[in-house]
Known about the structure:
about 30% strand; single chain; Immunoglobulin-like; eight-stranded parallel barrel; eleven-stranded mixed β-sheet; 24 strands; alpha/beta
Amino acid sequence: MKAQIRQLTRFGLESQSLSTRDLTIRDEFYVVNLYDKETGSVFEGLGGAATESAAHVFYQMPEDKQEQLLDFYFGGGADYRFLRVSIDSCDFSIAHYEAMSNPDDKALASFSLEHDEKEIIPFIKRAEEKAGRPLPILLSPWSPPAFMKTTGQRNRGGKLLDKYRDMWAEYICRYIEGYQAHGLTVKYVTVQNEPNATQSWDSCIYTGEEERVFVRDHLAPALKKHGLTTGVYIWDHNKERVYARALESIKDDTNDLIEGVAFHFYTGDHFKALDLVKKRLPDKKIIFTEGCMEYSRPDIGRDTWYHAMKYAHEYIGDIDHGTTMLFDWNMYLDQEGGPNHVQNFCSAPVMCDVNTKEITVNHSQKAIALIGQTATPGSTQIASSAWHPDIETVAFLKEDGSASMLLLNRSKTPLKVKPVWRDQVVEFELAPESLTSIIFEN
């Protein structure tokens, strides 16, 4: 048997093909096990956010550079299968925009996706053309139109007024139908992005009970009326409360109406919280919908290799604890980490200087690409274990009968490993601070 090994460090990507040997009784130390009889969730794939900022940066680059930008995610790079799109503006928009802003228009006759049609929808079509397949979309609202809220503004939280719940549910359905009218597939929708945060940008607050009631009494009936089968996800915020919010929102009266739970990564690991969600709600999907490296956080800094290690740690941990889809945040940003209408600048895996037209591919893109090429859609996550606490692993049984594994060495020292699958073993070394992919050929 052959094992194809690719190892990513801050110095680049190295590949080697090694022959396996039979496992012996002497193979006790340095072992990393793959347990293909202990299966978890079927992995569906990676995705990213087609924000207005990402699309705007894309269209400021020349045509030949645009093709390169698409290749990083859709042409053999990270192998993205999904896209996340905001309903109306988010912080990574040029400015506020809404598909309809007239409180007297009860029939939503003035509803229009004209703004999305300028750059966002054309970008999605370019991405689908490069990928050679449809890219199912997850729609997420940052805020209802300002007139529907207790505060009368998109920014700084506030709540959806009770009298506009039905109109807002109808608005969401119109958004779904509007994208589908362009030949796009909207497969998922979250109730609200970060419903527990009052942000300086577009935001809106929901309690778990309010999400439950909105889905039960307004959104689900509206989707049914429109004949839409879009999967509904709740929470769409950080993991420290994912378990509690799942139990608050998913009860007997909403169990059949909610497809799953969405989360972000900004407040820490909480991987065991995902296990609890899966234990209590085994029929619900768990999806990661947002994460990025924020320039406003001094603990993150500008070391792009640290960013890559953070992504690898997060993705490996999430998948190993039941996550089936993972969406990164902005695919592209400009040299400042924007545009962002409230200057909430961040890093992206691919940065573009819109003045010089130069592209910078950060280490995080290379890490995400290696993960996407190893954790292929349709693979089943299987159990794994490693001899050293600094080695993080997730393993897969692929549809063709082969197996793959991701190994992250977060330590600053090299670590010897002996991955074992079906009584075959291969020996090599994990470089310090490295991400490694193994594919055991069947």
